[in-house]
Amino acid sequence: MPSPSWLLLGAALALFVGQRLIASIIWNRKYKLPPRVPGIPFFGNTFQIPPTQQGPWAKDLAEKYGEMFTCKFGSQTWVFLNSSRVVNDLMERRSAIYSSRPEWPMTQDIISGGSRIVMMGYNDHWRKLRKIMHSILNSRQTEVYKPFQDTESRHLLWDYLHNPDKWYTANGRFANSVIMSVVFGRRSQLGEPATEKLFETIEDFLSNVQPGANLVDGYPVLAKLPTFLQWWRPRGLRLFHKTRKVYADEVRNINQKLADGKQRDCFAVQFLEQCEKEPDINETQRLFVLGSLMEAGSDTSKVSVSQIIAAACTYPDWVPKARAELDAVCGADPQRLPGFGDRAKLPYITAVVKEGFRWRPNIAEIGTPTTLIKDDEYEGYKFPAGTVFTWNAWAIALSPNEYVEPERFYPERFLNEDLNNPLKGHWSFGPGRRVCTGWHVGEANVFIAISRLLYCFDFEEVPGHPIDTLRIPQLAGGKAPFAVNIKVRSEKHAQLIERECSSVVDLQY
Question: I want to staple 78 with a disulfide (CB 3.0 to 4.6 A). Which of 101, 139, 388, 403 is the partner?
């Protein structure tokens, strides 16, 4: 006969299993989710999603399951939205309840000190910080940015002419220097350690935010373990202190320049003064607001310019059309550089920029997840609060149901009534209330850089090193993600760059 203790244990186990079975039956009667991607017990699909370049993986699943499918990453249920129709219906029209964020005990609470605004839940604190960021990145500030975008894109041309092997680093310096000029009142230099460290922290963050990168982000309940049992914490704290130091060094430089009477007026100075009146914004939150601005203004623009260069190499049929338009405005026998004042005469270049954002979604290949804050119903499905939703960026951008010849780089698809609305026709800046606050700056960055680069340079694949545009790494560790031959169009174009751009190279402030 079994002992009483074994009988008691067996009864407890039977009760537990019974409760879970009953709970599952009740849940399944109350809720209904889109088709599930088969996984394994407990871990779900955690080990199926690749650590990088997740776009192709999610695109293949969309082709198999249709407009929506469900995955399980740890304890979190994710619903992928694979068409513009469902993204519009849920993340745009119902953004009031689809705009929060999942729990990220590692990536947000530890690595970001709970202060990275892009990962904050949809609450009053997020709205307050979002308002601050919007004040420096909104459309009314575009005139503030234009002089810096003009200066930095001239420097970009100089770097391409004199250091073509460092073209990718030059793209990063250009984008970073625009935002640094506005936010911190200083320029960035090619190969500058501070700029390289910033891009390192961006890649640290992006590599950790991917589904499956950290077990505790998939199972937030693990964060309730005693601190000494949280094996992930030491690594997270090292990344936090590394990131915080990068941001703090910039603030320290500002304070030193203020003391020396050499600091230009800039957003950071005004922001830090305002923070003295806002005691509920602590020092770490202040640093991460400024850091988020640096990140928002740097990485996406750098990668987007690079993607369009890849498109010029692999789908070159559109380049002569862009050149003809630029030559008609600025002279086939080069007379001057294109500028923002020419934009109304350069509709094809605007279309090139939009196509660049659509063509191969970068950074957020499977979108950026949001969390449903209350139960919702849609087309026969019943979603519980806490469900994670994301727009499947690659699946949408490369779907023939969305675009004709989606893999082709074809700017003509955007020569329509929405040409001058950068948010229409693609999801590169995200949907709903979590749309990227810096889209005005990012779009203008890419326009001025690409118009001038196409006017002055030819881009070709390196023989023996073809560019696989479906496999361009988004996290390249600071190295160029593909090989490219860069040649100035003519000696006269080289002379134009020397004449128009040399004065900005040594400009300091």
Answer: 388
Which residues are CB-neighbours of 365 under 8 A, at least 6 positions away? Answer: 53, 54, 55, 58, 393, 394, 474
Phi, psi of 445 (to 5 degrees): -55, -50
Confidence of residue 509 (pLDDT cuts 50, 70, 90): confident
Cβ-Cβ contacts under 8 Å for 104 (sequence gap 6 or more): 119, 209, 217, 220
SS3 content of the chain, % helix, strand, coil (to 5): 55, 10, 35
Other Cβ atoms closer than 10 A to 392? 29
| Token duo for residue 329 | 């405005």
Burial annotation 212-237 (CB, 10 A radius, 16+ → b, else e): bbbebbbbbebbeeeeeebebbeebe
Most distant CA pair in the chain, distance: 100
Closest by alpha carbon to 368, among 198, 119, 130?
A: 119
Residue 501: CA atoms inside 13 Å, Cβ hemisphere, count? 25
HSE value, Cβ hemisphere, 13 Å, CA-based, for 156: 34
Instruction: Report d(CA 388, CA 473) in Å as an integer.
Output: 26
Domain boundaries in the chain? 55-505
Q: Which residues lie closer than 8 Å to 282 by C-beta, 6 or more apart?
A: none
Gap between the Cα atoms of 310 and 356, Å rounded: 10
| Rounded CA separation 279/259 (Å) | 23
Q: Are strands 370-371 and 388-391 parallel, antiparallel or unpaired?
A: antiparallel
Distance of CA 211 to the CA centre of its chain: 15
Amino acid at 360: R
Please give the helix or strand (H or E) that residue 458 lies within, else none. Answer: strand 457-461
Task: Give yes or no for a contact between 312 and 269, defined as CB atoms under 8 angstroms apart.
Answer: no
pLDDT tens for residues 247-297? 999 999 998 998 889 888 888 888 888 787 777 788 999 999 898 888 776
436 labeled part of a ligand binding site = yes
The contacts of residue 397 (CB under 8 Å, 6+ apart) are 358, 359, 360, 361, 403, 406, 426, 427
pLDDT band at 196 (very low <50, low <70, confident <90, very high): confident
pTM for this entry: 0.91
- 329 CB-contact burial (10 Å; exposed 0-12 / middle 13-18 / buried 19+): buried
**How would you classify the pairing of strands 388-391 and 76-81?**
parallel
Number of neighbours of residue 275 by Cβ within 10 angstroms: 17
Paired strand residues for 80: 69, 390
C-beta neighbour count of 240 within 10 angstroms: 20
Contact between residue 382 and residue 70 where contact means Cβ atoms under 8 Å apart: no
